[in-house]
Hints:
Structural class of chain A: alpha+beta
Largest sheet of chain A: 6 strands, mixed
Radius of gyration of chain A: 27 Å
Distance between the termini of chain B: 61 Å
Number of helices of chain B: 7
Number of helices of chain A: 16
Strand content of chain A: 15-25%
Largest sheet of chain B: none
Order of helices and strands of chain B: HHHHHHH
Radius of gyration of chain B: 23 Å
Helix content of chain A: 25-40%
Strand content of chain B: under 5%
Shape of chain B: elongated
Distance between the termini of chain A: 60 Å
Oligomer: heterodimer
Structural class of chain B: mainly alpha
Amino acid sequence: MDGLTPEGVSYKDMARIVGIDLGTTNSLVAYTDAQTGTPRCIPGPSGSTLCPSVVSLDADGSIIVGEPARRRLLTQPERTIYSVKRLMGRGLADVQAELKLFPFRVDPSSNNVIRVKLGDKIFTPPEISSFILRELRNWAEAYFGEAVDRAVITVPAYFNDAQRQATKDAGKLAGLEVLRLVNEPTAAALAYGLHEKQRGTVAVYDLGGGTFDISVLKLISTGEGDIFQVLSTNGDTHLGGDDIDHLLQAFVHEQILQHDQIDFSPHGELAQELRKELIALKHKLSEAEKVTLRFPLPNGNVFEHEFTRGAFEALIRPVVDRTMAPVRQALADAQLSPQQIEEVVLVGGATRTPLIRRTVQEYFDRKPHTELNPDEVVALGAAVQANILDRGVQNMLLLDVTPLSLGIETYGGAVAKIIPRNSTIPASAQELYTTGVDNQTGIDIHVLQGERELAKDCRSLARFTLRIPPAPAGLPRVEVKFLIDANGILQVGAKDVRSGEEHFIEVQPSYGLNDADIERMLEESIEYAEQDFAERQLIEARTESESILAATAKGLANPRAAALPAAERAEVDQSVAALQAAVKGSDYKLIRKKIDELNHATGHLAELLMNTAVQTALEGKKLAEV
Amino acid sequence: MSTPFPITHSPLVCWNCHERTIGTHFCSSCGKMLQVPEKSDYFAMFELPRKLWMEMAALEKKFLQLSWKLHPDNFVNATPEEREISLKRSSELNDAYRTLREPVARVEYLLAIEGARVEGQNKQQAPPELLEEVFELNESLDELREAKASGGDTAALKQRLQAAETNFQGKLAEVDGELQAVAKDWDKALDEGADHAKRKGIMAKLNELLNRRSYIRNLVVNVQKELL
């Protein structure tokens, strides 16, 4: 088709487009290999493709992201934030219940955008997400040896307009042009190459750290290529693997309160340590039939509790059950029965849980796909979509839908739906407005998203006033066009029907950042902009030193450390001194070397600190991880 | 210049090459996607006559073909102007498909672009032949609400309402049958090149049926809500 190769149009440099999964727990970046056409995740400096979605503000004002930041959750919880995705595009009122379980300090000045305090600085969720995106961008640039400035980013299918806009803002703040927001379940289906099947229906069940999505897709093979059409989507932006952790946490907190009268403040270091233990326990229960938790308490007791698979499943069943109502609704909207679904795909780390696999398999009466790593599958799919967009000429087209109905407030606080949920996007609707009294100069318009009948029960997307020149009542005719673009983001335009004059309406979103906010943040972000590779390595190496030094000091203070032979003790002290000296310099390679030496020297100490039962389970762990 | 059938409302002059053009979506001269016309016409988008009977498989096939050509994904590397046109055109394509594939929405749209859609003066007003039944139904609904509020026995009332719901569902099916019959009349009138007056008469019938349908549908939805 001619439209693809316009003459005289200067293309942007064909830099690589990467696919990014900006997740609640972990984020990943992937690309499609030009030769083989297969998507691949890009590893970071540590060799892992998972970048924990954790951001920490160092005392010197620099930003630390990923694994080094995750380690600081224990040492510097007041400067560190995780699961920020849960706060994206949300107001303070939306997240009240969750804040009880999160050690975040939300700034009281938060109004339509939550502001989080890290140390003495205040950040918005898109800013924090932009630090994660910037880190992934650095990974990709180091890997390719060239600049990366365009990306496809995935979002939960059930994200509303404000949450999508916040994600796009984060991309902008990270210096990335976001070519497309792709729904996560759709990306997963792309990663499985299901679009290469001739035709059929696919259900994608995606239980991530903080969000749940279910999507029903249809594959259609046409003469020109394959079309991947999303028929329906549903879900819950506040339901995820984290909820399983919270149930476990609450259960154990309660047990400890009863037995030892210790009330866990969820914000403390101890609670973070317990959380880490419980997540490990949850993972083990995917394999083992029973696992015993032993957790040393500050009063010298050790809390012990044996979890059987059965008891664990009974505890978490409410979370699994909550996922099934959206599944049924999505199928109803697609007008399909469970038996009519030909492929089922599981996405998200939480779907490793046997109870979830069993529940899904029973409902669809079909064994779900689990071949790809559920942590990587979304990023891989984003890379497939990035490749499709990059090549321009394509053999695959994705038709996605809007997850929520778009409506406008009418008299009496009711909502008139103008674009129903599960409409293929882009989609639009026109409404004609006129005035009710003479010389009225404004008409207030309130745009909402959601399925409920009353405006107060739906999410407010935007409020604006149409400005009209004075005229007799009923004479002005203004056509307002609401358009949901291919990213699921709302645009509004207005036209004076009589004069044909088009107005640009500046829509002030009810939630989210306005352009001035973004502008200011872009300016501020220069502070955190590209440190060069060596500098970042140095920061990471120093952070790691900090945690291993802290762990060593703590270990040496433990009474059990007295059993350490004098010679070994001397070697540890020597290694500590050597590392402390190295940290003062700026040679990150030397620091790394000294870290390894200290790790080696403390091997025996680590063993001594563990009791025998735990020892077998944790074999091969370094002191800093114990 | 003869006008090819079906009539399309595309602009006569292309924004890009400034040549006169006769394409539906793309300029017949330079091949660029055309600006979205001032007045939309979903039938013309699909190059269909304004008939009410449609073959669903053919409509879907055309929708998918057009999606291939118009979707913004094809224009990621194009100029901002073309990206904007693609966004508008593909959104209109999706709106058109969403409307035309639903038989009732299709009738409503036809009447709207023919200027013949007149919504009931008072949506709350029951069609005369239904008055008595609607009165009974509303009474039962009130009783059920009262019983629910006071914690009284609701089983018998629910049963009565379920029977009423079945009754009105039947009436809905009747209206749908009538709509289908009148839709056939419309298609036939078009084929025969019937005069304006005859077409207007058919459209008035369709309009009245749509109003009746929406009234009954609201009743059914209200009953279903109370029975939940």
